[in-house]
Amino acid sequence: MQYRNLGHGLKVSAIGVGCMPMIKGGNITYGEEADPDEAIKTIHRAIDLGITFFDTAQIYGPFQNEELVGEAIKGKREGLVIASKFGFRFDGNNITGVDGSAANAKNAVEGTLQRLGIDCLDLYYQHRVDPNVPIEETVGAMADLVKEGKIKHIGLSEAGPETLRRAAAVAPISALQSEYSLWERDVEEDILPTCRELGIGFVPYSPLGRGFLTGSIRSLDDLPENDWRRQDPRYQGDNFAANLKVVDAVGEGAAKHEG
């Protein structure tokens, strides 16, 4: 396994495991519902292969995914980099909006640590920027959590260049997580240069286009009725056909270079 340095001394395996769809009956399903036992075995196998970077979030489930990851890493915590995210407001298990307040940042981490069964989170992301709360307030609260020993590194997700600069002026930002793949390249223009300028590591999510770029999905009928991707505009109508041509072109290029 190869390893990478993100920002400010955070070292991770070059390949990370996004644990989002690993629970049964959760709010985000990709393909058939996951088998929790198989999910835990997958995490264990990844650890055996040298993968250290595991990503979850409060919103996944919600809450259940952190519990599953916590169960999987029992007795295997040493050397792992566990990342989770906050940034939403809940009514029970229902998500009612974004919440980047200092109070939510500090309250949410308590539940996350409890569900994961750990006393310090390696990387804590604000899952979505709250337009109603200054980023300085949010990051200031996260910096307090670093001082308190509850998190080691601060991250943001889907933040723009100016937000990154304002955040980095408050506290070191170790990672930005945003979508990046062959069909989602907007970050190349402004986001990636800003990350380089500020010393922020970039963590891409959905690098295979939520599975589309693998070439295994040829029709919307290949997805179960409750598959979250049915909500994605890129999987619908004329967009699907247009994107399939891109996938076929990628497949032809890959075939020429195989072996």
Provide a descriptive summary of the structure in words.
- The chain has a 7-stranded parallel beta sheet. Strands 1-2 form a two-stranded antiparallel ribbon.
- The chain is an alpha/beta fold.
- Helices cover 34% and strands 19% of the residues.
- It is globular.
- The protein has 2 domains: 205 residues, Alpha-Beta Barrel (TIM Barrel), CATH 3.20.20.100; 52 residues, no CATH class.
- Helix 2 links the parallel strand 4 and strand 5.
Predict the CATH topology of the largest domain: TIM Barrel
Mean pLDDT: 96
User: Helicity, in percent?
Assistant: 25-40%
> From the coordinates shown, what is the CATH architecture of the largest domain?
Alpha-Beta Barrel
- Relative strand content: 15-25%
SSE inventory with pairings:
Elements: E1 3-5, E2 11-13, E3 16-18, H1 36-48, E4 53-55, H2 64-72, E5 81-86, E6 88-91, E7 94-98, H3 102-116, E8 121-126, H4 135-147, E9 151-157, H5 161-168, E10 175-179, H6 191-198, E11 201-205, H7 237-257
Parallel strand pairs: 3-4, 4-5, 5-8, 8-9, 9-10, 10-11
Antiparallel strand pairs: 1-2, 6-7
Helix pairs in contact: 1-2, 3-4, 5-6
